[in-house]
Amino acid sequence: MHAQIHTVTDLMTAAARALREGDQAALFELLEISANWLQPDAEAGAQHAMLEAMIEAIDNIPDRG
């Protein structure tokens, strides 16, 4: 996934896809990618809060089976 995430748009699109698919591993990877970007603390904080909330949301989705 690293090669495909270059912009905030890429990050948001990948995060939405991961949430829809229930892919927490992808969201953790996005957290790592975002943490390595050179950006203002407020922007990084907002991205991390969003991604962490998505990870928590997946934890709270009842099994569909």
Structure description:
The chain has one domain. It is built from 3 helices and no strands. It is 69% helix and 0% strand. The model has no long low-confidence stretch (mean pLDDT 92). The radius of gyration is 12 Å and the shape is globular. The chain is mainly α and 65 residues long.
Distance, first to last CA: 28 Å
Query: What string, H for helix and E for strand, traces the elements in order?
Result: HHH
Strands, count: 0
Radius of gyration: 12 Å
Tell me the domain tally: 1
Task: Name some characteristics of this structure.
single chain, mainly alpha, 0% strand, 65 residues
In short:
With 65 residues, the chain is mostly helical. It contains 3 helices and no strands.
List the helices and strands and how they pair.
Layout: H1 8-21, H2 24-35, H3 41-59
